[in-house]
Amino acid sequence: MRYEIKAMRRAEGVVALTLDAADDGDVSAKMRAQGYTVLSATPQKSLKLFSSKGTFPLVLFNQELLSLLSAGLTLLEALETLAEKEHGVESRKVFEHIIARLYEGKTLSTALQQFPEHFPGIFIASIKASEKTGDIPESLARFIAYQSQLDLVKRHVVSASIYPMMLMGVGMLVTLFLLAYVVPRFSRIYADINADLPLFSRLLMRWGQLLEEHGGLLLLSGIMLLVSIIYALTRPASKRWLTQTLWNIPALGARLRVYQLARFYRALGMLLRGGVAIVPALQMVTDLLQPGMRAQLNQATTTIREGMSISRAMEAHNLSTPVAGRMLRVGERTGQMGEMMERIAAFHDEETSRWVERFVKLFEPILMVFIGLMVGGIVILMYLPIFELAGSIQ
Fold first, then answer.
1. C-alpha span between 15 and 115 (Å, rounded)
2. Coil, helix or strand for 200?
3. Which letter does DSSP use for residue 49 in this model?
4. What number of other Cβ atoms are within 10 A of residue 343's Cβ?
5. Can you give the residue ranges of every domain in the chain?
6. Given Cys at both, which of 65, 118, 134, 218 links 56, Cβ 3.0 to 4.6 Å?
7. What are the pLDDT digits (tens) for 248-273?
8. What angle do CA 38, 41, 47 make, to 5 degrees?
């Protein structure tokens, strides 16, 4: 849900912002992480199921800014160049605001904090750490690599899901065609000949008669049900319920946990390599975990602040895997925790990709058999009385 927020920070005074958050508590947590005190937070009310408002192209922004800085342009020159070539109204306003803050003597990270809906906290933290060393291009390159790895895993999952989804769609269309067009015509034929039908054939023919008599009402009800489902899926409460339901499925929940831990360690590794201290970095990546794991992370952060090693704290609060635990201990011995966390993420990303591939290879034939049985069952129930009538004639 998108919120309109009035907030205050000592260096800037009162500012107006917009932010995507699950609820009021999430708004407060995200704004506190940015150093703001929330004065008011009002959810934007909209009846639109889908928003046509464009989003800021963060990865493209990083790639183009990195190219311009590597070519020798100053930060201001690079941002002005990007603003001149930008055609989107909202993105141009973002560039203009950032450039204006830089001319006022503000740092880039301070300017980016004005747009928490476009620039995530881990990106701003990485930029802020790089400003101390003067190595902003390296920070941009790390974020591009971080986002590219996340996108790679997502693309693999999506591409593996395309064929099963197409198969399900075709199966549903064939089934709907049989039930909505073919079955009603067969029901009229059997009504005319007054045949004695088997039980399941009678039920199927009753469906055909019902559809023929009240087809318009059923179609309208179906459309309203579909719209209601789509609308419900866009609500934060529905998303939380669906996510919790998926997590409660044993095999799937374990894989979702590994995927979230991989994303968590990748973001944490990027921040550590960028020079962010471990405790602030842990607080910045909290939103990457689902609510149940956030409480565990808060406890782990407290024990790390009290002096416990990172590997022991993660294992003690169930934020580790056997592989991650061993690699964290190696990172502590070598002093390369950032690099080791990114290797943990890469290992588990590959593991997730292999699991998705195996699942799809097993799921596709099962889905084909199910659709075949469903379509074949409808056809057999329609023609079964004809077969029995032909047998009685012989």
1. 11
2. helix
3. S
4. 19
5. 2-45+53-148, 254-335
6. 118
7. 887 788 888 888 888 888 888 888 88
8. 160
Q: Comparing 257 with 149, which gets the higher pLDDT?
A: 257
Could you tell me which CATH number the domain at 2-45+53-148 has? 1.20.81.30
Q: Identity (one letter) of the amino acid at 323?
A: V
- DSSP, collapsed to helix, strand or coil, labels residue 319 as coil
Q: Are β-strands 37-43 and 13-20 bridged in parallel, bridged antiparallel, or unpaired?
A: unpaired
- The model carries a pTM of 0.64
pLDDT at 192: 65
C-alpha R_g of the chain: 28
Task: DSSP letter for 381, please.
Answer: H
Tokens of 303: 């024990």
Do 122 and 271 form a contact (C-beta atoms < 8 A)?
A: yes
Characterise 17 by phi-psi region: left (phi > 0), alpha (psi -120 to 50), beta (else): beta
DSSP labels, 74-113:
-HHHHHHHHHHH---HHHHHHHHHHHHHHHTT--HHHHHT
Give the pLDDT band of residue 13 (cuts 50, 70, 90): low
Computed from CA positions of residues 54, 55, 59, 62, in that sequence, does the dihedral angle turn out positive or negative?
positive
Which residues, including other chains, have CB under 8 Å from residue 51's CB and lie 6 or more apart?
Answer: none
Q: What is the dihedral of CA 163, 168, 172, 173, to 10 degrees?
A: 0
Task: Please state, for a pLDDT cut of 90, what percent of the chain lies above it.
Answer: 7
Residue type (1 letter), 109: S
